[in-house]
Amino acid sequence: MNAVTVYSTGPSCHSCRLTCFVLTARDIPFRIADITAPDLSEVPEFLTSELGYSEAPVVIIDDEPQHPSSGFRPDLVDRLARHQSQRTVPGQGAVSIHNAREGRSWTSATR
Q1: In whole angstroms, what is the distance from residue 84 CA to residue 98 CA?
Q2: In the chain, what are the domain boundaries?
Q3: What's the pLDDT at 63?
Q4: Do residues 15 and 68 make contact, with C-beta atoms less than 8 angstroms apart?
Q5: CATH fold of 4-107
Q6: Beta strands of 1-111 (E only): which ranges?
Q7: Tell me, what DSSP letter sits at residue 38?
Q8: Measuring CA to CA, which residue among 68, 81, 72 is closest to residue 102?
């Protein structure tokens, strides 16, 4: 399984919470790193200056460190779930999320 790291700006980050929710719902293991923590003080500079991202979360996958993503990316979660399902027995069905503020919904593909 891929090692997935979600670089978050903390619990107030809506996109970070959505990303972690969908990763959890799809049974994709991940590690969360709160970049506001004092021991990670150099990480925000790396994510913005070196990688060019200004939106959280930034998700880095161990086998594709050259292709990190930024923001809530359901397409990335689907790709990870497909990759995982090739190695495990298929489990739960689709995950649905409704964003009331923006008036739109998203439903992942079933595994």
Answers
A1: 25
A2: 4-107
A3: 58
A4: no
A5: Glutaredoxin (3.40.30)
A6: 4-8, 31-34, 58-61, 69-70, 96-99, 104-107
A7: G
A8: 72
Sequence-distant (6+) residues with CB within 8 A of 65 are: none
Q: Which helix (H) or strand (E) holds 25?
A: helix 14-25
pTM of the model: 0.70
The two tokens of residue 98 are 């409704």
Which residues contact residue 13 at a Cβ distance below 8 angstroms, ignoring those fewer than 6 apart? 56, 57
Residue whose pair of structure tokens reads 């990670």 in the numeric block: 40
pLDDT of res. 81: 85
Distance (Å, whole) CA 89 – CA 70: 29
Looking at the chain, the whole-number percentage of residues with pLDDT higher than 70 is 73
Cα-Cα-Cα-Cα dihedral of 74, 22, 20, 73, to 10°?
Answer: 0
| Tokens coding 92 | 């739960």
Euclidean distance between CA atoms 96 and 72, whole angstroms: 14
* pLDDT, the chain, mean: 78
**Residue 108 vs residue 71, higher pLDDT:** 71
